[in-house]
């Protein structure tokens, strides 16, 4: 149950688009479409942004989008805003009947 | 409105035990699988355990298997996590979460509680 691999940090200027990758294996992301993404601001509980690879829950901005190719999932934030500065985590179901989270990515808005 | 309220955290010595509770409201608790997720101070999220709506199926991360037990009381709309043989590395904020659809624990966590801090230290 090794954590999924994410870049430690990603940065961008307001209005730009950034993409966060999440790399797993054929035992998780590569096999299952149960990939989700979470945003966490300091001292707060996480908030789901994307579920089942590319679905947005009601109320989540359409500036957030998700995709998957092979063993890697991606979260794209378009039109970057100051409020998007936070930590982001991916998650996937695994063949061991568990879930696993990514290592986390800190997004900085320059 | 879905509300999840964790309690039971605190300071415990290594090797000790603690039971966390999560009081749920705003949805039909007995029809939803539930999940515990933890976060060590300054670290990332770690999935801990999940339980089916009826309580007949439970799932655990390898790091807690054999030491933690997840359970639920559907009459009291409450989720539990019994933690034994606690280690320093179990120190974390423990979150109770519910999925976006009834059995969807394997898919994602839609609702999160505010978390309860467990500190394992001598």
Rounded to the nearest angstrom, the radius of gyration of chain A is 13 Å
Helix percent band of chain B:
under 10%
Write down the overall geometry of chain A.
globular
Along the chain, the helix and strand elements of chain A come as EEEEEEEEE
Q: Strand content of the residues of chain A, in percent?
A: 35-45%
Main sheet attributes: strand count, strand direction, barrel closure of chain A? 6 strands, mixed
Structural class of chain A: mainly beta
Which chain pair has the greatest contact? A-B, 25 and 24 residues
**Secondary-structure element series of chain B:** EEEEEEEEEEE
- Determine the N-to-C terminus distance of chain B: 40 Å
Low-pLDDT regions of chain A: none
Rounded radius of gyration of chain B (Å): 13 Å
Gross morphology of chain B is globular
In brief, what are we looking at here?
The complex is a heterodimer of chains A (110) and B (122). Chain A has 110 residues and is mainly beta.
Account of the protein in words:
The complex is a heterodimer of chains A (about 110) and B (about 120). Chain A is an all-beta fold and about 110 residues long. Chain A has strands spanning about 10, 20-25, 35-40, 45-50, 65-70, 70-75, 85-95, 100, 105-110. In chain A, strands 1, 3, 4, 7, 8 and 9 form a 6-stranded mixed β-sheet that branches. A 3-stranded antiparallel β-sheet of chain A has the order 2-6-5, with no helix packed on it. In chain A, a hairpin with a 5-residue loop joins strand 7 and strand 8 (about 100). The mean pLDDT of chain A is about 95. Chain B has no helices and 11 strands. Chain B has strands spanning about 5, 10, 20-25, 35-40, 45-50, 60, 70-75, 80-85, 90-100, 110, 115-120. The interface between A and B is medium-sized, with 25 and 24 residues.
């Amino acid at each position: 149950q090794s954590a999924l691999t994410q870049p430690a940090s990603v940065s961008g200027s307001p209005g730009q688009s950034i993409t966060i990758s999440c790399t797993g294996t054929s035992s998780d992301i590569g096999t299952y479409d149960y990939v989700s993404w979470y945003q966490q601001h300091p001292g707060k509980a996480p908030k789901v942004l994307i579920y089942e690879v590319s679905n947005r829950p009601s109320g989540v901005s359409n500036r957030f989008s998700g995709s998957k190719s092979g063993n890697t999932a991606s979260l794209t934030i378009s039109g970057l805003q100051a409020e998007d500065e936070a930590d982001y985590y991916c998650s996937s179901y695994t063949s061991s009947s568990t879930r696993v989270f990514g290592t986390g990515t800190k997004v900085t808005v320059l | 409105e879905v509300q999840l309220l964790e309690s039971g955290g605190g300071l415990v010595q290594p090797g000790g035990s603690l039971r966390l509770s999560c009081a749920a409201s705003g949805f039909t608790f007995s029809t939803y699988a539930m999940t515990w997720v933890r976060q060590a101070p300054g670290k990332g999220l770690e999935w801990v355990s999940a339980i089916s709506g009826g309580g007949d199926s439970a799932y655990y991360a390898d790091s807690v298997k054999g030491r933690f037990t997840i359970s639920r009381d559907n009459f009291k709309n409450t989720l539990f996590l019994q933690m034994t043989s606690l280690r320093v590395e179990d120190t974390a904020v423990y979150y109770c979460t519910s999925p976006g659809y009834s059995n969807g624990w394997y898919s994602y966590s839609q609702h999160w509680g505010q978390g309860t801090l467990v500190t394992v230290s001598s």
